[in-house]
Amino acid sequence: MTLLEVPVVPVRVIGLAVDSRMQPVVLLTPLDVGDGPRVMVPIWVGTQEAASISVAVNGEDTPRPLSHDLMRTLLESVGASVDRADVTRIEDGTFYAELRLTTRDGPVTLDCRPSDAIALVSRIGAPLFVAESVLSDAGVLEEVDEDEADDEPDPATAEEKVAEFRRFLDDVDPEDFQG
After folding, report:
1. How many whole angstroms separate alpha carbon 135 and alpha carbon 130?
2. Domain BFN spans what residues (predicted)?
């Protein structure tokens, strides 16, 4: 099955956390939560990648370009653009991703680590997608209070929910998501 045949869901980064072993985790959630439970996908990443994602998501400047800044500049300088990134599958607890580029010679799809894909699209503003199968295999449900479902998001409540999810991460291992 090609990537075009895999059903995907648009997602966004809702935050970064650290598990009980001090391993960084990037948290993704679908853009259109709707009513009912929200799914969060935790993807364990390296420390450097977590820092790069954090810089991009928070719109921070660095004194020197990070690797993902260099990737963005390199792509721009050769006339290529990133159209999107897809977290395509999870195998034996390892997540896989692809970058879709437009180049002067036409479209190109590159295999990459999800952390690199997330760091790059967070800088560029390109969309990020997760395969529905990844959401069902690795997603964690968060119950939504029906009274809060129609309200505007409260930043303090969002922080509380991320803190609650961090507590969940204290008790979970990456091996829990192996197929």
Report:
1. 7
2. 5-142
Pairing of strands 128-131, 38-44: unpaired
CB-CB contact of 120 with 68 (8 Å): yes
Distant-in-sequence, close-in-space partners of 136: CB < 8 Å, separation ≥ 6 = none
Question: Which of 165, 177, 170 has the alpha carbon at shortest distance from 20?
Answer: 170
Enumerate domains of the chain plus CATH numbers.
3-145+153-171 (3.10.690.10)
Whether 150 shows a pLDDT value over 80: the answer reads no
Is 40 or 171 the better-scoring residue by pLDDT? 40
Partners of residue 100 on adjacent β-strands: 84, 109
Dump pLDDT digits (tens) for 165-174.
556 556 655 5
Integer distance in angstroms from the first to the last C-alpha of the chain? 19
